């Protein structure tokens, strides 16, 4: 049967043309990113401090000894994260351990890709499968996660497991997936708010309990666990002016006054709060759209408004970007995809031409910040425009979806519904991709 699937044949439909063209391109892109670019590595090596900390942990030596005056990658994980990652040092050959970690994250990303397909009710035989795989591995976030060799691929997998289990109302297991991620790094912690507003309280039991239990186990096994709080934690709350695309990071790099940095952060925070309120008020019964869109807004706000935001964190936005297949998506406009290009593209905008260096450097350093910011502005504007239009037309009680979004009974591909308080879910038609 497998050989029959691989048998060369001429495409008869547009969908088959796209699939026949993109599957080999997507697969070869994956192989290039994993076995060539990642194995070759780069001057930035996120894995070395992780490997050294794991080795120190297993041998009873101090772990939290980083010199934060340097710009080299530092070891910043909690004691619970050290416990989880320590097995990588069982391989005493650093290079082989790094290859294994690359492979682990590549597998995690591919599993997350499959779960993302299933979340939106697509199969491996759909056109979306090769398109999504190619887009993910062409992005800066996946490429540099593998090249720099960090744990973000596993964090993405934890996010996808959390979203699946949350929507299936398997709250304790959803909390376990989120808790394992939080035990290493707090990137996905804002997603607890999604569980909170949905009334899924049991998520908190395991999402907070897992890191606490792992910390309790790691504490007596560590040489200096208390130094995480006295030495490392204060650094995490500082704003650094290098490799930092958050508003605060770029603001300090360009020498902006503190009041202006805070004004921009608070202003964007207001937009985020209004967007989240509109999502909760009018879309919380539209579960797939609400969970993925609200999660994307929360995570984008975290990257932009916190003390540290790095471009490859954008991997966690894949579920949000996938909502474009839903008819009521807030991403069906060109400004949204201009923003996404800013923080997803692997292109470099640095220029070596005389007189262009300054412009190219600014464009390269600011495109991520502007991309995250523009995405949040787009969400606010789309939801705000829908709300004002519905209010003007006297149909707020029926929701704020545009009138051109019509219900399509029995369509299971989108699980997208017009919803207002007290209204029944209505399934919306997605893009035709089969």
Set down the secondary structure blueprint.
Elements: H1 2-6, H2 14-40, H3 47-58, H4 79-85, H5 94-119, H6 128-138, H7 140-148, H8 152-167, H9 171-184, H10 192-197, H11 202-221, H12 226-236, H13 247-253, H14 258-283, H15 287-305, H16 318-322, H17 334-344, H18 357-392, E1 417-418, E2 426-427
Antiparallel strand pairs: 1-2
How would you characterize the overall build of this protein?
The chain is mostly helical and about 425 residues long. The chain folds into two domains: about 10-240, no CATH class; about 240-434, no CATH class. It is about 60% helix and about 0% strand. It has helices spanning about 1-5, 15-40, 45-60, 80-85, 95-120, 130-140, 140-150, 150-165, 170-185, 190-195, 200-220, 225-235, 245-255, 260-285, 285-305, 320, 335-345, 355-390, and strands spanning about 415-420, 425. A two-stranded antiparallel sheet has the order 1-2. The longest helix is centred in the C-terminal third of the chain and has 36 residues, at about 355-390. The radius of gyration is 22 Å and the shape is globular. The two termini are about 20 Å apart. One of its GO terms (cellular component) is plasma membrane. It is found in: Cell membrane. This is Arabinofuranan 3-O-arabinosyltransferase. Belongs to the glycosyltransferase 87 family.
